Amino acid sequence: MPKTVDHAARRRAIVEVAWTVIAERGLEATGMRDLARECGFANGALSHYFPSKGDLLRAAWEHVFERTNDRVATSTAGLRGLDALEQFCKQVLPMTPSAQAEAKVVLNFWQRALSHPDLAEINDTAMATWRAFIRRCLHEAQTDGAVTTSADFDIEVAIEELLAMLMGAQMLAILTPDAHTPLLQERMIAAALQRHVRTPVSTVN
After folding, report:
1. Distance CA 6, CA 53 (A)
2. What pLDDT, on a 0 to 100 scale, did the predictor assign at position 119?
3. What pLDDT, in 10s, does the model give residues 144-163?
4. Is residue 67 classed exposed, middle or buried when 0-12, 13-18 and 19+ CB atoms within 10 A define those classes?
5. Which residues contact 139 (CB under 8 A, 6 or more apart)?
6. CB 153 within 8 A of CB 143
7. CA–CA distance, 88 with 104 (Å, rounded to integer)
8. Taking the CA atoms of the chain, what radius of gyration do you get in angstroms?
9. How does DSSP classify residue 204?
10. What's CA 83's distance to the chain center, in Å?
């Protein structure tokens, strides 16, 4: 009787190995033949699921993005406003060894996305998801009185400032880990959020 192969499970197993290998070695140093060996497959079996390293990188990136979003969902459960936004930032930044490995996959993906519009489009879609989450948190914070509702406050600019800080900090924390420690990253999050917190109005007696 022919052996039944769970192709979805096999694909997941390959991605689980691939993303850690890409994080350790980088995409350019990751050979498909070596990767197939680490997965316990023949090279031909690996190419059946991922014809190229680009396909594999895309799957690895989608995997780490999903891992990040799972952490965000868990850490923000029951929270709203700035409390939820703070937890979101902490899960995005590479403040743990696992998150640092994920960020290395992200950097490999960004590099390839510069010359591959299809990958850039995937990244744009992912960032749109995060923009929507940040926007919701800031609107909640305005409702709660934690963030100003002044016409001078441009919520879209605040979203882009926060995303730019998070993406830049991801890169710097990987390239210069001694300078961008988890403690500094926490301070950066606090400073970024503080800029959008309503300043208490002093009362003159």
Report:
1. 22
2. 92
3. 999 998 888 999 999 999 99
4. middle
5. 155
6. no
7. 19
8. 20
9. -
10. 19
